[in-house]
């Protein structure tokens, strides 16, 4: 995937019921754009909120739901998304769920990748898909150009959902492994910041400082305190319509359904030892020990020389 001398190169397009990677081929990047990337259900919106709070100095009225689109989602139309972004005079921050080898990587642009344990993702994804309003399934599945099967309502049981998701490489969504693996390969690029949901929960103020430094934005002490408050789970849950995709209108129960629990490990009481062993064996086989360990719990990533040693 890596071009000479070192940059990731797009090697393929990526399509499914949600996504169309080709939009990035036509997108007019600006050098100060910020890309927020995850597999999905990994803290994307949380990170968009953090970035929005940093760029707007802790302004409580910033609505990332309105200003930070998921570009590769087939909705709304390309024209609408491009018009929104073209009109923005502030620093733009844009979300993607593409694997890095299907993304148009630009070395001058800053990328933030967020990971989360796949079992937590599956739990979050089950809540997400179970709560789409029926009209959203209709709208999504009738978008022209869809590739592959339509998205169907998930099974009623979260464990059954998890088992199919693991056995069928992310079904009914997409592969976790190729997403994590490709972005992990880019972890040492200077314009790449790798975050983990577990670390964000352990130290939100530290995460905000790290992201602000990465984006080269100075925050006053007051702005920093506001940014921490407005990125907390409780504040985001209470103001969920400002951050949730499409303002949360696509979820039964609205945006607060999307900002659901914000906790990890909810699978521990429900998965059997065999389920856990199957997940961990697959993660190891797909990602290798170092990346699988990071995906499970976050923590510092070894610098390049240590990784190579
Ligand atoms: P749960 O469904 O486990 O509660 P994404 O934005 O990638 O779809 O991720 C959604 C997940 O991030 C949801 O997890 C949501 O609750 C969680 N989340 C959003 N904001 C959060 C915050 N401020 N603190 C902790 N978790 C948050």
TrEMBL record:
Residues 31-279 form the Sulfotransferase domain. It comes from the Bacteria. Keywords: Transferase. It holds the Pfam family Sulfotransfer_1. InterPro entries: P-loop_NTPase, Sulfotransferase_dom. Belongs to the sulfotransferase 1 family. This is Sulfotransferase domain-containing protein. It comes from Sphingopyxis jiangsuensis.
